Amino acid sequence: MAVRKVGVIGCGLMGSGITQVCAQSGFETTVREVSQELIDRGLSRIKSFMEAGVKRGKLKEEDVTSTFRRIKSTTRYEDLADCDIVIEAVIENMDAKKEVFSTLDKLCRKDTIIASNTSSLSITEMASVTRRHDKCIGMHFFNPVPVMKLIEIVKPEITSEQTYQAVREMGQSLGKTVVTAKDTPGFIVNLLLVPYLLDAVRAVENGTATKEDVDTAVKLGLNHPMGPIELLDYVGLDTTYYIAEAMFQEFKDTRYASPTLLKRMVLAGRNGRKVGRGFYDYNSK
Ligand code: 3HC
Fold first, then answer.
1. What is the overall mean pLDDT for the chain?
2. Least crowded by CB within 10 Å, which of 42, 43, 234, 240?
3. pLDDT category, 240, cuts 50, 70, 90?
């Protein structure tokens, strides 16, 4: 089955990026958020990103117009009933994701694929609340979605080969390179990334070096585009914390245990760039 109509649940940082790349790649895309205010915020994020792309000479004005022509927005799940695939990008919380899977299962066409953009949670567990286990799959995008070239497809045992091939083909038609992982916590990227980010926080917490020096060391010593503390702010401290907790629960390995400093910052709401403040202050920039 070839995918033509796409639904996206959530128009936050990841959901808006997924909506953008789908619509930009020619798919009719309907994005659902809980309120008009969140829809407007997500759509204006897409607009600013694409306009910055026009200024950089990466896109043309007509790309912006044609992308927006393909995007529909709604607060009603019912408007996604006719999609070939629906990709959820809600908060990294199993109960929230199960609720989305269960709602979509009841409303969508029998052959609609339900995908999750989860960074670490089990697709098998999400699929367990549906009557279409074979049509559930993971499709993990990276931030910023329009720029990052990777999609991790998470294929549990229960997913059919037909679903996997349809999602693989769709991922490639978004201009992304696709890798495939088993349904184990963190898949490939976060299995490696999360202990590294937590270790960077521990280095700052222990006084090994300042956050600025940790970032500079990694940028210049390893040629990464961002240092780990900058990257934490970029991904979101809360998101990283939830992912680490899920991995710690599963593996019971202290490599995935969040340092106290990270926990305290999340409790204080210093969740990174998206709220203007994390390890660094973005309000003044
Ligand atoms: N429109 C179109 N293209 C754009 C763009 C825009 N608005 N903004 C940037 N780009 C393109 C640039 O043209 C450039 O493309 P090129 O290499 O073909 O010339 C590329 O993106 C990079 O741009 P720049 O070098 O100018 O650098 P920026 O400062 O704009 O890029 C960044 C910022 C891409 C975010 C870079 O710092 C980076 O790669 N950081 C690391 C990001 C990362 O690791 N993300 C993964 C996080 S982990 C995750 O998401 C998983 C989750 O589960 C936690």
1. 97
2. 234
3. very high
**In this structure, is residue 280 part of a structural domain?**
no
220 lines ligand 1 (CB under 6 A): no
224 is catalytic: no
pLDDT digits (tens, 9 = 90+) for 29-42: 999 999 999 999 99
For 89, the domain range is 5-181
Would 58 be classed as within a structural domain? yes
Residue type, 261: L
Domain count, the chain: 2
Percent of the chain with pLDDT over 90: 97
Residue nearest (by alpha carbon) to ligand 1 atom 27? 225
- What mean pLDDT comes out for the span 149-178? 98
**pLDDT of 219 above 80:** yes
Annotated active-site residue 206? The verdict is no
The predicted-structure confidence for 88-102, as pLDDT tens digits, reads as follows 999 989 999 999 999
- The reply to whether ligand 1 has any atom less than 6 angstroms from the CB of 34 is no
Please name the amino acid found at residue 118.
Answer: T
The response to whether residue 10 sits with its C-beta less than 6 Å from ligand 1 reads: no
**Which member of 33, 88, 92, 152 is catalytic?**
152
Q: Is the CB of 226 under 6 A from ligand 1?
A: yes
Residue 161 designated active-site: no
